[in-house]
Amino acid sequence: MAELTVRRLWKEYGSQVVLENLNLTVADHEFVTIVGASGCGKTTFLKMLLGIEQPSRGELLIDGKLLASEPDKERGIVFQRYSLFPHLSVLDNLLLGLELQGAPLLGKLFGVRRQQAISKASELLNAIGLYHARDKYPSQLSGGMQQRLSIAQSVICEPKILLLDEPFGALDPGITADMHELILKLWESRRMTIFMITHDVQESFKLGTRLLVFDKLRHDPQSPEAYGASITYDIPLRHSKPARSIAA
Amino acid sequence: MESSNDIQLLPLMPRLINFHPRRSSALALSALPFLLLMLAYLFGSSLRLAENPDDKLLPALGNIFSTFRQYAFEEDARSGEVLLWLDTFASLKRIGIALGISSAIALSAGLCLGIIPALRATLGSFVTVISMIPPLAILPILFIALGLGEVSKITLIVIGISPVMIRDLSQRCMELPAEQLIKAQTLGANSWLLVVRVVLPQILPRLLGALRLSLSSAWLFLISAEAIASTEGLGYRIFLVRRYLAMDVILPYVLWITLLAFSMDWLLRIASRKVFPWAEV
Lengths: 248, 281
Known about the structure:
The complex is a heterodimer.
Chain A: E1 4-13, E2 16-26, E3 31-36, H1 42-50, E4 57-62, E5 65-66, E6 75-78, H2 90-102, H3 111-127, H4 143-155, E7 161-165, H5 173-190, E8 193-197, H6 201-207, E9 210-216, E10 229-236, H7 241-246
Parallel strand pairs in A: 3-8, 3-9, 6-7, 7-8
Antiparallel strand pairs in A: 1-2, 1-4, 4-5, 9-10
Helix pairs in contact in A: 2-3, 2-4, 4-5
Chain B: H1 2-9, H2 23-51, H3 61-73, H4 83-115, H5 117-130, H6 139-146, H7 150-175, H8 178-186, H9 191-228, H10 234-241, H11 247-275
Helix pairs in contact in B: 3-11, 4-5, 4-7, 4-9, 4-10, 6-7, 7-9, 9-10, 9-11, 10-11
């Protein structure tokens, strides 16, 4: 269960208003896609969900509790790049979350517990089609493989909420279809809530169960910073699940 | 026409920046400056010796070899020690201990400064100012405070190289993408685990790099300290025989020191490649 509530949320940097008066309730296991012009606060919103930016006013609640003000294991994140660990092999990248949570002193698992973690990781490696590359380093992987690993790395820790910041923005168009299938498969099997920023409107309709459009409601040409963006459209996308997961 | 002339000229002479020597000729080219230096020495030496057979400034190669053999394989009449090895062992011990201590300091301080903003705010400018103190200027203080023994020499090297290494390593820590640190936190890392599993392993190859860059300064401080107060050591020997204009000792000693420094650099590079394969791919 992860119900997210946004209540009268504002974000300002000095006199610049980035987001104004956001109100939103997102039910468990929604797939929320977020689109909007660049500079309209999508990423700021995601950063606040992640805990690396704090709201200026208003509240962010997860299951009725205030969101922690720094990143934690309740919320996974996949950035467009740089979120893999270059000094760890593919397998070790995937094991990292299990090891960090299972071994508070050294951050490394040994013996039976390591074997258990490896079998769990191997299962996921198979699911994302990277089992054959498990001993490679991230820099030896293609961009698409890196993003699949980065997603799996977050998913293996079973976060309540998974945040995706333009995860497929830097990939070849040919690969994105595979990535869509993968993310839908993981979303359906793990019952997490997903927030995904994208600049691809088609993608947002294809993947989401709910589409949020961020834009400015008012605009002052004399001082463009005076008004912030808000959610201008909140579109439920209720297609039947099989049709969506087959991915047209 | 002008353009047709251009086209004819082009294949004849590639631009200098586009001319890459082949592997074999690159090797020969890299040997060239060494050979030239050698030739220049031989030429100058024979000229001076022809004029004055007792000339000490540019001794003949045979002369240098025999002196070197004497220093490397024969016991010294007065001390009963083989001087080259005595000196080499003493110097390597000092520089080895100093490099070890400097690495430990640089690694721990660099990590803390690089990763903990509050510590950086407290100590960042302090380290920057400290690293600007010319170490040789405080050598007298070290001799007064720590005596003329090994401690003051090792301390000089440590003071000389560790501030720069600290700054280098903390800079490297700060260059780690913020995305990585955030991601690790979402996977359940606290500050300690972040250091142990994410930052430290990525900084270790940088430490070897920082060590390689510090080698020449370390040797500089070692030889300075040995020249002023010591009873054995490579730097001590050079400055001792300087009184007798013994170029036949000084020159092979300088070559030997260069060889030692070069080997240390080479070993560190090989070690980095073997131990941290991910940093090379």
